[in-house]
Amino acid sequence: MTQPAFFVEDQAVIEAALERLLPSETTPPPTIHQAMRYSVFAGGKRIRPILCLEAARLFSSERDGAATAGCALEFIHTYSLIHDDLPALDNDDLRRGKPTCHKKFGVAMAILAGDGLLTLAFETLARVNVDAERRVRIITEIATAAGTVSGMVGGQVADIEAEGKTVDAAGLEYIHRSKTAALIRASIVAGSLAGGASGEDVERLRRFGEAIGWAFQVVDDILDVEESSAALGKTAGKDQAQSKATYPALFGIEKSRAFARELAARADRELDCYGERAARLRAIAEYLIVRRT
Amino acid sequence: MTQPAFFVEDQAVIEAALERLLPSETTPPPTIHQAMRYSVFAGGKRIRPILCLEAARLFSSERDGAATAGCALEFIHTYSLIHDDLPALDNDDLRRGKPTCHKKFGVAMAILAGDGLLTLAFETLARVNVDAERRVRIITEIATAAGTVSGMVGGQVADIEAEGKTVDAAGLEYIHRSKTAALIRASIVAGSLAGGASGEDVERLRRFGEAIGWAFQVVDDILDVEESSAALGKTAGKDQAQSKATYPALFGIEKSRAFARELAARADRELDCYGERAARLRAIAEYLIVRRT
What we know:
- The structure is a homodimer.
- By secondary structure, chain A is mainly α.
- Chain A has one domain (6-290): Farnesyl Diphosphate Synthase (Orthogonal Bundle).
- Chain A is 71% helix and 1% strand.
- In chain A, helix 8 packs antiparallel against helix 9.
């Protein structure tokens, strides 16, 4: 399945905002800004910023706040890829078909580029163009989703520690929901807050985001088994090689696929009350489940 | 010179707040929370939180907001030490007389513990008990001071790139002001904001913080030449061994000492208008210049 047509429009908004928010390649010290830009502009699909933009669109035609928040989410996503790829972690040489940040700039610079992007994310969030109360809620939401207790770093640690061990369904659920689903959920919640959503709408979108975020990771695990490195733009089959805890390893491919579909249906139901207005969010959810890369 | 007597009182406030804000050692996944706590509780003097508390005290008797912001500053300071000590960067085995985080927990966990602390810092700042407008200003101030353009990460990059090269006074000024002074300045500014200071007071305190932050790094460079590893609790003489850009290397010890004293005097003048109320801030400035560790 190719990406929905409106992705191109959203991606253009995000690319322009990323270009504006990232220090230029000549800003001193140049090397770190080159490394940050290299990884941010390495060809990501901008799923999280698009989710942020489209969640905001449900409630407002104003895109500026959601675009800025979306860039911060992309900075956090990119920092996590840079650090995950490091020799001490996944030790990956290839990301989106290009040398990883540390292969190109060295390990020290890759560590610092990740640190710089994470810091810039919060500097960026602090200037999202919504009232200060909402800005603080967006920051809390995203920081928690990126953190160690129920967020991305916690999921990454649990994932590393699960390597080669027997992990039950509850352990796997913690890994998936923290490592991937949390930041995807936060993208949706941040977008709805930037768009001015009410409390009830925010909670509905949160459940939608949680379901598609979880489904996204299940599909990622399936793709790692089924697709080639060339198609993925990263080393395929690494999960099995590293004895990672995955849905396919625990339940098999067919059950994993059924579970992803069930999560997608769950997500879809949360959007019922928005009717046609939620067509784009539905299209993203559909795309995330049936994608091949 | 021993530390000012009131440090003990402030340190107790900060230790209690750190204990409350850090996830417990048994919070899943336990390893990362153990690593984060290991480094945060490794015996730091809490200079940045104390500066934050004492800047707030000039304007308010309420300590809660400044204590919380102070903890976030300590998380950022600790993350920077963990990442700086990594094999790919300074490759240090010893910090405050104890094994560094990666020696104790491994490189992967040290990278992630640093990431976790940086993220937790912003989660913590988002809940500082002041109005949302001030919270956002505190976040902006600290994120900028920790960032790549004129903040801590930028200074660290410039420092690494200067190794073994000829650095002029302007290059050295950038390194010192970004690597160390920025976060110390932000500690003072955050404290004044948490204490409810007006715009003019915040700017005065900003200049005070800039001067003592810069002096702090000059003194650090002097101590690296003069003191033993045992006294410092870290490897001494590393600057020269690594051909680092330092004030003593560029100007000699005596001129460096005179410059630190000049900066201290500059800082002191900014406090004139506060009279006796600023006695504690003056005592901290004095302590930072004449300390031996």
